[in-house]
Amino acid sequence: MRMEVANNVDVVRAESGDIPLDSVRRVEVDGVVDTGAAQLVLPGKAAEALGLESAWNATVRYADGHTQSRPVVKNVWVRLCGRESIFSAIVEPNRDTALIGAIVLEALDLVVDCITQQLHPRDPNGILTEIE
Known about the structure:
Elements: E1 2-7, H1 8-15, E2 26-33, E3 40-43, H2 44-50, E4 54-61, E5 67-80, E6 83-92, E7 98-100, H3 102-107, E8 110-113, E9 118-121
Parallel strand pairs: 2-7, 3-6
Antiparallel strand pairs: 1-2, 1-5, 4-5, 5-6, 8-9
């Protein structure tokens, strides 16, 4: 699944007229949905191209049980299925694809269709937020 990611600091500066819109650092990356993952994970090359600032380190546990410390970047602007928001992301230096976890799916109100292996907005008219 293709997704657009950008440096949100650049997006804000372009919206305020401080920099031209075509100066916003942005890339398209292939993303893989993992409903068992929580976070957004970006390939190292994408994070570097966007000039994203490392905010802290997170310990990541892999499927085989080993752990590694990985940088977390902030101000990641994401557009997926026509919806957009800002996230932090774990940077994985050896990945070629982004990993789309539950936080992104929830924030953008997207549902996984396991039969067609596609993402769809839950409500095509906009994000539906539930409050008790």
